Amino acid sequence: MSETLQNESLATDPDTNRLERAPRRSTWSAYLHSPLGVAGGAVLVLVVLAALLAPVLAPQDPSTADLALAFHGPTTGHPLGLDSAGRDVLSRLLYGARTTLGGAGLAVAVALVLGVPTGLVAGYRGRRFDGVASWLVNLVMSLPAMIVLLASRAILGPTVWVLMLVMGVLVAPSFYRLTRGVVADVRGELYVDAARVSGLSDARIIGRHVLVVVRAPIIIQAALVGGIAIGLQAGLEFLGIGSGDTPTWGAMLNEAFQNIQRSPGLIVWPGLALGLTSASLVLVASALRDALEGAGGARRARRRPAPRTSTTPVPVPAPVPSSAGSDVPRGGLLSVRGLAVAYGTDDDAREVVHDVDLDVGPGEIVGLVGESGSGKSQTAFSVLGILPRGGHVVRGSVTVEGQEVLELDERARRTLRGRVVAYVPQEPMSNLDPTFTIGSQLAEPLRCTLGLSRRAAHARVVELLRQVEIKDPERVARLYPHEISGGMAQRVLIAGAMSGDPRLLVADEPTTALDVTVQAEVLALLRRLRDERGLGVLLVTHNLGVVADLCDRVAVMQDGRIVENGTTAQVLRRPEHPYTRRLVGAVLDDAPCREPWEPPSSAPDRTEATA
Amino acid sequence: MSTASNAPGTPLLEVHDLHVTFPGKGWRAAGREVLHGVDLDVRPGETLGLVGESGSGKTTIGRAVLGLAPIASGRVLLAGEDITDTGRRRRRALARDLQVVFQDPYTSLNPSLLVGDTLAEPLLGQGVTPRDARARVAGLLDRVGLPRDAATRLPREFSGGQRQRVAIARALAVGPRLVVCDEPVSALDLTTQETVLELLLEIQRDSGVSYLFISHDLAVVRYLSHRVAVIHDGRIVENGPTRDVVEHARDPYTRRLLLSAPVADPDEQRIRRERLAAVRGASGDVAA
User: Fold this and answer.
1) Do A594 and B242 make contact, defined as CB atoms within 8 angstroms?
2) Does the beta-carbon distance from B100 to A197 stay under 8 Å?
3) The complex's ipTM?
C-alpha cells in the first residue's frame, strides 16, 4: 500500500512536484511589487496623516479672515498665500482634507454597513429575504441620485455629513449586488456543503469560507466608491451646494473659480489635492485587485491542469525533420515520426511529448491511452495543428495521406481539417454554441467550405443527422443545444465531423462525459462509420474498456512517451512494459465481487461511546 | 439511542419511501420530483453501492440523507432515529455520525484554507478546542497516508488522488458511523483510483464504518460493495447482494447497464457487445 502511494505521489505526479516549487507569494508582497500601487498608497497615507494632524500642521486658523491680505501671495506665515477673504490657503487645505476624506469615509461606511450584511444574507440564504432585498435595492437604484441629494440638502440642511450619509445609502446597492453575487457563487461550492455536513454553524461557515472570497472585491469596490464620493462631494460644493463655512476642497475650488480672473493660482491647490487623492484611490484599488486576484488565482484552477500557456505569442520554430524511427514503414493514412511538443520559449521550454511514433491506416482504429498529463491529448492536437497557445512542435514529422502536415501554412491546414481530418472533442455540450440551433451550426461550415445553398445545406444536415442514427433529424435540427441530451450532442458533433467526408477522425475522449449505456451506442456508431466508410480513427482515451471494444491497435503513453505499442489483444492480455502492466492491473473488471455482508462477531466498542 | 437499534443486523441507515422535489425556477413554477419513493438501508459496517446514470437521482439520495436536498415526503432514519426533518442544531450533532466524501476533489476543498484547517473543521464543529484539533490532524494525515507537513500546505499543492485523501481524512475526523461517498474516485486516474479504493476498504475493516457508495461505475461498485442498489429515473429498480445483482440481474435496465460497461479484454468485450445488442433488440430499444 505505502509503496503504491509513493508511486502515486512521486512518479506519476509531475504536477505536484512542479506546484510544490512554486513560491507562495502573499497578497501583501504582491501589492508591494506594484510601483503604482505603492505610490498611490503613499500619497493616500500622506493625505490622511495631513488631515489627522491638521490642528498641529496648520499655520493659521482656517476661518480667520483678514481682508487686508486678500489674494496676497505666499508669505512666511502663509506658505501657499491667502484666498479672496484673506484666509490661509494651506490651513484651509489641511482642514478641508478632514471634511472631504471624512465625508467620503462616511459614505463608504454607510454603504458597507447597509450593503454587505444584507448581501451576505441574501446570497447565502436566498429565497424570500433575497426577493425582498433585491426589490428594495432595485428601487434605490432607480432613484435619480443627484435629485435625491439636492432634495435631502433642502430638507435636512446644508452639511457635508448629511449629504454623504444620503450618498452612502444611494451607493449601498452596488455593495449589496457585489456581495450577493459572490456569496451565491460560493454557496454552490462543494466545500461549503462539506462544511455544513461537518456541522459548522452558518456564522462559522460565513466566517471561514465566504468572507475570504468576498473580502477582495469589497475592498476594491470601497476604494473606488471612496474616489467617487470625493469627486461627487467636490462637484456639489463646486456648484455651491455644500456646507457654508466649513472648509472643504470643493468649496475652495468654487471660491477660486469665482476669482479666477483676479488670482488664477488659487485653483491649483484644491484641484491638485482632489486630483491626487482620487487618482491614488484608483491606483490603490487596481493594485489591490491585481494582488488579491493573483494570490487567489488558484481558485479557478480546475481539473486537467493544462500545460502552462504563455500570454505572449511564442515564435514557433520550424520543426526539424527527424529521421528517428524512419526504418519503420509509415502508415497509409496518418503517420507520426519522432514528434516532440514543447511549451514555452527557447530558454525555459518544457517538452511534454517526446519522440512519438504513431501510425493509423485506412479503416483502422488506433487507441492512444494514458493517464492525465501523459501527453496523449497534446499528441492528438499536434496532428490536428490545434495545440493550445504557447505549445509548438519542436521536432518530428506528421504526414496525412503522405502529405507533410507540419510544413503546411494555416490556410492549407484548414482545408486539411474538415476535408481529410476531422475532430470529435471530449465535452460535447461545451463544443456547441448555445445561441444557435443544431441545424444552423452544422449548416454553417457546409455553406462556407462546400459553398452549398441554404436549402442544400439543410438537406445535407438532415442526411448527416440520420447517418449518426438520430431519430427525427428534421426536428433535432431545429433544437437548441440545451434541448438535447449529452449523448445526442456527441452524435451531433460526430455528424459535424463527418460533414466534410473525412478519411481520418481524431476523437479526444469522445465518450468520457457520457453514461455507459450512451457510451455503448456512440462506440457502436464509430464502429459502423469505420466499417461503412473505411474511416481511420485515432481514439484518445483513458478507458481500457473502450480500447478493448473499439480499437485494432493501441499505443500506451506515459510522461510524454509511447511506452508500448501493439495490437489490442497483445497489449491488454500480455503487457510488456511495467507501466502498462500496472495500468492493466488497476482495471477492476476481473476483481472478485465483494462477499455479502456479515454481522460483526462482536459489537464494536464505539457504539457505546456514541450512545 | 436504544441498544436495540444497534443490535447486529439492524440497519444503521434506513430510507423509507423517499420523495425529493426541487422547487421550480421562477414565480410559482411547478417543482420537479427527482426521487419517486426510494427505499434502502445500510447496516453497520456494510457498504451499499448505489449505481445509476446521470440524472437518475443517485446523488440526490446521498444529499437528502445528508440534509442537503429538500425532502418532500418519506423518512430517513439513522440508528433508528428519525433525521428526516432535523433542525440545524440537531443536524450539527448528527455530523458526528454522518459524513461525506464528494466526487470532485478540486472543488470540495476550500482553495484558500490550509489542509490542516480544512481537517480541523469537523472537529471544531463538534466543539473540540483548536489546540486539540490540531493535534488530531496529524493522526488523520497518517491514517490516509499523507505526510504530516501536508497540514501546512494549500490544496493546490496536491494531486487529485492526494486531495481525495484529504477529503477522506476530513470525513473520518469525527469518527462517523456512515460516510456518504459520492463518486469519490471517478475524477481520478485508474492507478490512483485503485489506491484510494484500497484506502476506503482498509478504513472500513479497521473502524467498522458504513458506506453509502454512489457511483456510475459498476466495476468500482462491485469491488467495494456488499450490496448493490440500481437506480433508474428516481426509482430503485434492483437491490440485492452484489454477486446476485451482477450475475443474475432481473431488471432489464440493470442487465443493459451491466452489459454496457466495456471490459478491458477484446474477445470478452465482443461477446458482451453481442449480448447487449440482443438485450437491446429484445427490449425494442432504439438509439435516439
Assistant:
1) yes
2) yes
3) 0.83
